Amino acid sequence: QTEDSLVSISRPAAQRNVDVSVNQTAQFWRKAVVRCANISTASLAAARGYRDKPDRLDVFEALLVFDLLLRMTKALTEADGPSWREKLPPIPTVPLSVREKLAQQAAANQAQHDKDVKKAQALKEEGNALVKKGEYQKAVEKYTQSLKHNGSEVTTYTNRALCFLSLKQYRDAIRDCSDALRMDGSNVKALYRRAQAHKELKDIKACVDDLNSLLKVEPKNTAALKLLQEVQKK
Length: 234
Known about the structure:
By secondary structure, the protein is mainly α. The protein folds into two domains: 3-93, no CATH class; 97-232, Tetratricopeptide repeat domain (Serine Threonine Protein Phosphatase 5, Tetratricopeptide repeat, Alpha Horseshoe), CATH 1.25.40.10. Helix content is 79%, strand content 0%. It is built from ten helices and no strands. The protein has helices at residues 3-37, 41-52, 59-80, 96-132, 136-149, 154-166, 170-183, 188-200, 204-217, 222-232. α9 (204-217) runs antiparallel to α10 (222-232). The radius of gyration is 33 Å and the shape is elongated.
């Protein structure tokens, strides 16, 4: 055979091999897309772990995933064209057993949350009773226990701040008021009690700033107006 005839035979064969390779690659990536979409509960837990601790995420792994996505997109586009997404097989739904397990976990978590909130409320009320008796240190202990069960209760922070003021633990009072204000930026009690703590620590500017913020919320607050007048005389 001549060189020309060999070339004429080899080219179609090479083209056929390329077509087979592209089709096999596309089929592989279609399955990969479906596998990626069918996320397991364990994968979700791992993802949450990376979300909570981003320092654990390996940058090299992230680059590998990005490269993988690029190659997958390129292979499917070459095989099926720009509309390759429409040709993907149906993505599997979450199995009923998994959905039931997730529902049970959600119900258990809600039950534990409700239990914690109830316990926190009981401990806070015990602290309130101790404040009325003037037993501020014991009240602080009750409020601290309450916050371990429910750390999002603003009034527990402001109540404990009141105790810290009475115990002359002014920096602790500022900390609690600041925590309360992060959850409720216009909380009058938190602003006033933090202003009181700043005054005792001789930080007049911070005290005035808190009082001015308070008066924007309640312009006629007599306690704030009186304290502002007092510190401005100094």
